[in-house]
Every structure is written in structure tokens, then in C-alpha cells.
Amino acid sequence: MDLARREAVGAKFSAEAMKRAQALTWDATGKIAAIIKPGMRESEAIAASKALLGTLGMDRIWHPVLIRFGENTLRTFSERSENDPVLGDDDIYFIDIGVVFGAHEGDCGFTRTTGTDPEMQRCADDAKRLFDIVHTHWRTEKVTGQALYEFAKAQAEALGWVLNLDIKGHRVSDFPHAIYKGGKLGDLADTPNGGLWILEIQIAHPTRAFGAFYEDLLV
Predict the structure, then answer these.
(1) Per the database record, which ranges form the Peptidase M24 domain (predicted)?
(2) How many Cβ atoms are within 10 Å of 190's Cβ, its own excluded?
(3) What is the pLDDT, as a whole number, of residue 78?
(4) How many CB atoms lie within 10 A of CB 136?
């Protein structure tokens, strides 16, 4: 499939509407983080997040609200959480939401910590740091999606983390993007254009049972 077909959009698509949807999704994610506290179960955090999203003027949720605590931060989007853990006082978690605003898909995620564990904090910080490094590489070098994730893997290792290559990014667009069948960003043999692809970074600690996640729109 050629790049034009992978990057197809609908008649109602607007680059400005995409940016607005992403900005509103980031705002929503920040509001969700503010209500997640130690002592909550993962399921409670997800239920509270869905209730909050319902007050923010969204059109709909386009992918399940994903919140992972502790060891579940190692699990991919398609994997179910193990048990229903309680967030500890010295813990790590991430949020991943996909929400439609103005008929366009926003999708973002980030990792936070609840305590002072230095490795957890560094992991959370480095997920964002690695995203920024990879994003800049795409903007300056105009590499393919495949090369972008090869670069991300090497950069993750240089920082002391293991990149989860089962998570390779994906299309977004006017809702629903799934009809365009863009595939995974990390499998793309062409250079992706801005405003249409989500770059996902999921890293794992090399020896401890936790990881971190960060995603945003390539722009």
C-alpha cells in the first residue's frame, strides 16, 4: 500500500481540528492525573477517568481508557492488566486515552510517579525524553517509520532502558481512522507526514518490574 493510501483522510478532515483535538486530549489527561492517588485500585482510576471525560465536551472515547499501575506498566495496549493493583505511596503509573473532539481523534499518554524512587522517576522522565529525541530525529532527518523505531531502540538502550517494539505507533485522523488502514508507524517504509501519526514510546527497566509510556502526535 502506498503512502497516500496509508495517510488518507475524510472530507471533514482539518489539520487545525487535529491540533485542537490533541490539545484538548492533553488537557483531559492532565485532569485525569490530578485525580489518581495512592490507595486507588486500577479499576477505580479507570472508572473515575471515564466519568471525568464525560464532563469535558468530548464526542466519544475512541479507544479504551488505559491506566496501568506498577508492574502493569510493562503491559502493552492489547494485553490485559494482571489483577487489579492498588497504587502505592512509592509507585509508578501511566495514562493512555484516545478521545474524539470535534470529529477528530486525540491520543496521548504519559507516566507519573507517586513517591521518591529515583529509578521510577528517571524511567518516567526518560520516556518523555526519548520521545523528544525521536521526534526531533524525524523532523530533522525525514526518516521512514521503520528507521525511526530502529533509532528509538538504540537511543533507549543508550539511556539504559529496553524499548518495547510491540508498540510502534499508529494513525489518527478524523474519526474513525481505522477505515484508512494505515498500519503501524514502526512498519512504515515511507517517511510519515506530520499531523497524522502517533509516536508511541514504551520502555522497561532492565532488571525491575516496571516501565514507562509516552505518546503524542508527530507534528
Answers:
(1) 16-177
(2) 14
(3) 87
(4) 10
